[in-house]
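User: Quick sanity check before I run a bigger batch. Here is a single chain. Can you write out its predicted 3D structure?
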Amino acid sequence: MTDLVGAIDQGTSSTRFMIFDSAGSVVGMAQREHEQIYPRPGWVEHDPTVIWDTTVAVIQEALTRAGVTAGELSGVGITNQRETTVVWDRGSGVPVANAVVWQDTRTAELCAELGGEDGIDRFRQRTGLPLATYFSGPKVRWILDELEIDEQARRGDLAFGTMDSWLAWKLTGQHVTDVTNASRTLLMDLVTTSWDSDLCLEIGVPSHMLPEIVDSIGEIATCQGVLDGVPLAAILGDQHAALFGQACFNAGEAKNTYGTGNFMLMNTGTAPVVSTAGLLTTVGYRIAGEDTVYALEGSIAVTGSLIQWLRDNLGIITSAAEVEQLAATVEDNGDVYFVPAFSGLFAPHWRPDARGVIVGLTRFANKGHLARAALEAAAYQSADVLEAMVADSGVDLAELRVDGGMTSNNALMQFQADLLGVDVVRPVVTETTALGAAYGAGLATGVWSDLDEIRAMWAEDLRWSPMIVESERSRLHARWRQALDRSLGWV
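Assistant: Done. Predicted structure follows.
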């Protein structure tokens, strides 16, 4: 056994492979973007075959850059964009259609139909989730109905999986998913952590399509091909991996990831906490032989992808890094607010009828104000989630650990601390999704002996403390809520 572990980080906009040593330091990395496919307004797709080809390429590149072979890895973990849905033919291994991405809203009518008189809370007691376009079960049903392939699914000819299952199938030949990804489908009972036959029947997903649910961390399978002989020893949905990578192992500890969207998770221990404030109850992670750890989650659909929109759709910046410089050209937001409800509003509002709005425009406003409003939207949405999380948990956070690409923006992090009224803390390693998958794989294969050893490696890089008075914080929140109200009821 070596002290090196690999992590496949299959995200919404890119895929990368990272190699870590026993100190948690990066020794090799490669990353490539993949195409975002928008067939219609509100529809978002990925090509699963392209994602697999990209995964192979970045694994090979990272190994070469690190100067190691696959055989020198103790184990590998997968962390993935959650809810994105792939259906493929078991015989040929070929997807029947493009993957339907978690942001996609095409199942809005189906979700309303499934909710019936009970509405979005019909399955919440069993799954911890509202009935929303976000989750995988209705996406599977839509694919089966649209392609008229329900009979093949019932015969067992077709396989369903989120992106972790697709990659695990291609890497090992095994049809598996871990308990964190399974908890995002609307098909798993949150308490038993097994597929619920009644849920499958009610949503219309044949059970023969489903992967085996395995522990997040443990002996899962052995890889073939590009990682031949390497144990697949961890699978974690990206936000659960970030929770693990931030060493939030105790109940009450929380993190917020700033990526394509924002995702705040709080560890609630070994019992699920039912949300009454619009959050999700989800599985945090499960280590083989131990109890399931649960979490509360607030999911925000559009934060980092809004900066991509400024770049790709409006062309007011040429790279995401330029947005901070552009925002710094103005003293404040000029009373301009941007609610990026491109896919409706997720937590804590759950309003699929919302759409993006920019409010407060005058002749005074310029592209600097627009850039600043786009950045501040991530902080405002996160503040809404934290407020709900405090209400559900009864815990007033002393600090919030943050990670992801947008945390390199110091102005945004300061504004986030100002809005929340608590310290915001960035670790030395901010790409904690890949780190969490690597920690899991290393824990399963003996690179690290226990959680205390992993916790000791977490190190603080920068800390931002609130710098505004409560009256100003309240004024900003009130103005944001005015803007938020104007986004509702568009669809």
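The chain has a mean pLDDT of 93.

User: Great, the batch can go ahead then.
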